[in-house]
Structure prediction request, 205 residues.
Amino acid sequence: MELNKILPLIIADKVLHAKWLNTLSLMENTGARKISASEDPLTVTYIILKHAAEEHRHAFYLKKQIEKIGGEICPTYAPEFLLAPAYSKFYLNQLDIQVSRYLKHTLGLVGKELRFAAYLLVTYAIEVRADELYPVYQEALENAASKVNVRSIILEEEGHLEEMISQLKKFSPHWEEHAKIAADYESHLFTDWVNALSGDLLLLN
Prediction:
């Protein structure tokens, strides 16, 4: 089942919707922590600090949106408060592993150079996905007349993608080739995640 068909089913159920928001919050928080982990303590830039801070804020904002649905439904990121918990936690970590392996074998990068390059490519792939996912979610929210909205996240994610492309151009003249590899990895993982979401909905219904 495609995401645009799954989302109306999720939004229509208060508990499922809360778990969906909590799952997105988890994934934004995971991304923020990964960005911070990739930082070099001496050469960390304004853009990296800004990006990590905004991803943390997205995680908080999504968590806060749960209040609009009603009640403290998802107090933590424990599996019982998530949709497709294993895949949702596995998704970004696996993308990081695959991209890091590619960079190590293709470009021979190690250490902080490898961490920084992986940050660039993984974040690029995730921002491309975010630029697709959040508008689809926002449209579904509007169609359902939901009080929840993610418009502010959409605006910031668009800016993030522009910033990542700018950094990638400085990283390599062949950045588009590397970025396509990362995006292909992400596409497969995203498909697996959506399939896991579909499976969760079938079990819950």
Q: What stands out?
A: DSSP finds seven helices and no strands in the chain. Residues 3-204 form one domain.
